[in-house]
Every structure is written in C-alpha cells, then in structure tokens.
C-alpha cells in the first residue's frame, strides 16, 4: 500500500503549460496593439524582454515588495517603456486583456489528464497549492478540463502566505486534514515548490522537464508526468 494519501500539485508549469499558453496570449496582445508599428521589436525578441521583466517583478511580489495590482500592469508598462512606448493607458488595457485571454488557453502537459484520472481512481485526495491569482487559476482549471480532479485549491490569498514560506504548507495541511507523513508535493519550481515543501518535512516530486542541473536532493525527480505512475 502506498504511503501517500494526499497529493498536492502546483498548477502553472507543472500541469498547465504556462509557457505555451502565455506565449499565445502575448502574441495576440502584440498583434491587437500593433506594437511593432509603435517601435517594439519583432515578437520573438519582444517576448524575451517581457519575460525578463515579468520574472523580476514576480520575485519582488513574492518578497512582499509589490502588490498584485502593480505586478499585473507594471509588467506591461515596463515592457512598453523598454521600447520607449510611454503609454500607461495601453499598458493597463494590455494587462486586462492578458488576464482575460490567458485563463482560456487549454495547453496542458503530456499525460496530465491520464495521471490525474489514475490518481483519482487510486483514491488519492488531490489538492492544488498555487501562488497564482485565485480567480485566474479557477478559470485555467475549468477551460483546460481538469477542475473536477481536485478537492481543494490552496492559494496564497487564502493562506495569507506564498510558497516557499512554511505557513502556506501548514495551512494546506490544516485545511485538508492531511498528515505530513502521508503528503506529497509535486511542482516544477525548485526553490518555491520543492524546498518549500522540504522545509516543512513534506516529501516532494521535482518536475524538471528541461533537465535543469541543480545540487538539491528532492525525494523524487521526474522529467515527464508519465514517471509519476511509478511513484503513486
């Protein structure tokens, strides 16, 4: 009998293919706003700049230096300013459109649905722990057709804490009634998901599809979701 009874999944970059879905969304915004005519580089270069800025702002957000609202529009604003497009109104419109379009995208990782169905059939209690915005995450799950697999979704808004902080993991355990020794965290972010879970004593599965080298020692490491079948 497997030692685990509760599985805690990250969503973005683990089940829901954020990179593909975000790229599609950004491309639509780029075309709608006719950004190349306004002085932006071609889209492949534009998206590199956007992601660099977005990553920096997300880091500030996780550390408590930036509000959700500022994160949402300033990533667009700073990207436009990079190209000397000083249009705050456009940045805020793009931010709203991004959050409208992104959750409707449906790309998930290979073997995602098969894995989730397998886990349900094996009577695991299934949960999500996410730093993403609650409403946005619910929409992603529904449009991708994977919302029915999960009993609960723990968000940073509910827990008043973000991964990798121990408080969100402790909240998740308390909220779900899961025992630490019977819980498993599955996620793609080494510092956020894996070390966060490790710091509270929870076993972890590091989903590392790009084979990123590291010096940590997660409980398990997988490169496709198909490998999860040998763990659970």
Number of beta-strand segments? 6
- Relative strand content: 5-15%
Strand order of the largest sheet: 3-2-1-4-5-6
The portion of residues assigned to helices is 40-55%
What can you see in these coordinates?
There is one protein chain. This protein is an alpha/beta fold and 232 residues long. The chain is 49% helix and 12% strand. It contains ten helices and six strands; from the N terminus they run βααααααβαβααβαββ. The chain has helices at 18-32, 35-38, 43-62, 68-82, 88-101, 112-121, 134-144, 156-159, 166-176, 190-199, and strands at residues 6-9, 125-130, 152-155, 183-187, 203-207, 220-222. It has a six-stranded parallel β-sheet. Helix 7 links the parallel strand 2 and strand 3. The model has no long low-confidence stretch (mean pLDDT 95).
What attributes does this structure have?
elongated, 232 residues, 6 strands, 6-stranded parallel sheet, alpha/beta, 49% helix
Brief synopsis:
This protein has 232 residues and is an alpha/beta fold. It is built from ten helices and six strands, in the order E-H-H-H-H-H-H-E-H-E-H-H-E-H-E-E.
Topology, element by element:
Layout: E1 6-9, H1 18-32, H2 35-38, H3 43-62, H4 68-82, H5 88-101, H6 112-121, E2 125-130, H7 134-144, E3 152-155, H8 156-159, H9 166-176, E4 183-187, H10 190-199, E5 203-207, E6 220-222
Parallel strand pairs: 1-2, 1-4, 2-3, 4-5, 5-6
């Amino acid at each position: 009998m497997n030692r685990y009874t509760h599985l805690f999944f990250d969503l973005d970059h683990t089940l829901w293919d954020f990179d593909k879905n975000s790229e599609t969304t950004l491309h639509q915004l780029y075309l709608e706003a006719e950004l190349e005519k306004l002085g932006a580089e071609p889209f492949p270069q534009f998206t590199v700049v956007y992601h660099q800025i977005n990553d920096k702002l997300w880091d500030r957000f996780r550390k408590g230096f930036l509000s959700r609202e500022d994160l949402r529009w300033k990533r667009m604003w700073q990207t436009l300013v990079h190209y000397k497009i000083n249009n705050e109104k456009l940045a805020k419109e793009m931010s709203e459109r991004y959050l409208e379009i992104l959750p409707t995208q449906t790309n998930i990782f290979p073997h995602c649905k098969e894995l989730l169905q397998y886990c349900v059939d094996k009577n695991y209690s299934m949960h999500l722990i996410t730093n993403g915005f609650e409403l946005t995450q619910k929409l992603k799950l529904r449009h991708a057709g994977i919302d029915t697999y999960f009993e609960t979704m723990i968000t940073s808004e509910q827990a008043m804490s973000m991964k990798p902080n121990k408080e969100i993991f402790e909240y998740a355990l308390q909220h779900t009634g899961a025992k630490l020794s019977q819980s498993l965290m599955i996620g793609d972010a080494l510092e956020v998901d894996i070390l966060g879970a490790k710091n509270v004593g929870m076993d972890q599965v590091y989903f590392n599809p790009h084979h990123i080298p590291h010096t940590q020692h997660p409980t398990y490491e997988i490169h496709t979701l198909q490998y999860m079948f040998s763990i659970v």
